[in-house]
Design brief:
Blueprint (H helix, E strand, L loop, with lengths): L17 H5 L7 E3 L5 E3 L2 H28 L7 H19 L1 H14 L4 H6 L2 H37 L29 H45 L12 H53 L3 H41 L7 H14 L6 E2 L3 E2 L2 H20 L2
Antiparallel strand pairs: 1-2, 3-4
Subcellular location: Cell membrane
GO molecular function: odorant binding; olfactory receptor activity
Pfam family, one: 7tm_6
């Protein structure tokens, strides 16, 4: 559909990555019911993914406890295990919040302009173009990085293969970990074990990309409404409050704008409530995973293995940066409302108008931010803190050698 000549539908913002559609890893399939509300008809994918996660983490937890009890080295690949936990947490948070996500999307759907003229007023075509371009970049990275990540251990296995009695090293395995009957050391079933690892990897990565699609869809539209409202505030002229013929209508218009501001703040709060717990937990796990990946990159001499660990490291850093950037954008869009009120010629308005604006300015000073229960604010400073934490953990590991 041409985004210029025909109205854009909100469903066009909710298109998940192509590989998710090919492998049917769609945690949300949005359709409309008889009342026109968006509903999700795809919870089975969630449940199947969680069953696999219970098995995957259960057997690996058993291996860790067994190795501690026997004093042996575990079969775990810590960077892969940590990033698997990272992905799974986001999947669990999406599942827990799935009803809130659908409800919030219906709130955005009611706000979303349906005709072309209204969409141009809100700059919907430009917002959708930016969103679609970013969605394409993420898909392009996934289409190249995932096959590279999956094939690297296979290529290493083929190049370094000696005989059937030689051990299958951790570098030859996609995820590592433990499987019953010592299957990971059986050369005859190596292809089947690799396929099992690929499937487990896809389950985790699709949790991540589904979260990414929903987060960016919601954030882009929240910012769009805040920016449009800011333009409305900038268009206010205090001198109009002196015109006796239109004074009552003018003040009704001002009261309507105040109610709209309150409504937008409630939308921001709902957006924050959906994602705050997932971001709080996964940012800490992400810092740990970045640390482990950096450690293996610096300790490895094999170029293929270095490439294998660089790909997820880049993804973690870039997507952590972007979430913090989105949080900064939300904070700045909210603070621009206060600036728009303060910078207008409110002091030239009537007495009633000045009272309203001064109270409104005070209210607008409470800017909306992406926060995690008030413990951290998700912005660029938080990104700096996460990277510093990852580096401190990395230097600690290096010093323990």
């Amino acid at each position: 559909m041409d985004a210029v000549d025909e109205p854009i539908k909100i469903e066009q913002f909710l298109q998940f990555q192509k590989y998710q559609q090919v492998f049917h890893f769609l945690h949300f399939q949005f359709v409309r019911n008889a009342d026109g509300r968006l509903i999700n008809k795809s919870e089975l994918v969630f449940r199947a993914g969680f069953l696999l996660d219970v098995w995957f983490f259960g057997i690996n937890l058993f291996d860790i406890l067994r190795s501690i009890q026997l004093g042996e080295t575990s079969h775990q690949n810590l960077p892969v295990l940590s990033i698997s936990i990272y992905f799974t947490i986001r999947g669990i948070m999406m599942f827990i919040k799935r009803h809130d996500i659908v409800d919030f999307l219906n709130v955005l759907d009611r706000e979303f302009p349906k005709d072309l003229v209204s969409q141009r007023v809100l700059n919907v075509p430009q917002v959708f173009e930016r969103y679609h371009r970013r969605h394409g970049y993420v898909g392009l990275y996934a289409n190249y990085a995932l096959p590279g990540f999956c094939l690297t251990p296979v290529v290493t296995y083929i190049l370094t293969y000696e005989d059937r009695n030689a051990p299958i090293l951790l570098d030859h395995q996609l995820l590592g970990g433990w499987l019953p009957y010592d299957l990971r050391q059986n050369h005859l079933v190596y292809p089947l074990v690799w396929l099992y690892d690929v499937y487990c990897m896809l389950v985790g990565v699709t949790f991540f990309t589904s979260f990414d699609t929903l987060f960016n869809t919601m954030q882009a539209q929240v910012i769009m409404y805040l920016d449009c409202f800011c333009r409305q505030l900038e268009a206010l002229n205090a001198v109009d409050s002196y015109q006796a013929m239109d004074e009552r209508q003018f003040h009704e218009h001002i009261c309507g704008l105040i109610r709209r501001h309150q409504q937008l703040n409630l939308i921001c709060d709902k957006f924050n409530d959906i994602f705050k717990l997932a971001i709080l937990i996964t940012d800490l796990v992400g810092a740990t995973s970045i640390c482990f990946h950096l450690y293996l990159i610096t300790e490895n001499q094999d170029p293929l293995m270095i490439i294998k660990y660089i790909l997820p490291t880049l993804a973690l850093v870039v997507f952590t940066f972007e979430i913090c950037l989105r949080g900064t954008q939300l904070e700045e869009a909210s603070s621009r409302l206060n600036e728009a009120l303060y910078n207008q010629n409110w002091y030239m308005g009537s007495k009633m108008y000045r009272k309203l604006i001064l109270i409104w300015i005070k209210y607008a000073q409470c800017t909306r931010k992406l926060t995690a229960y008030g413990l951290v604010e998700i912005n660029m400073k938080h990104f700096s803190d996460i990277m510093q934490l990852a580096y401190r953990l990395f230097t600690f590991l290096k010093s323990r050698q």
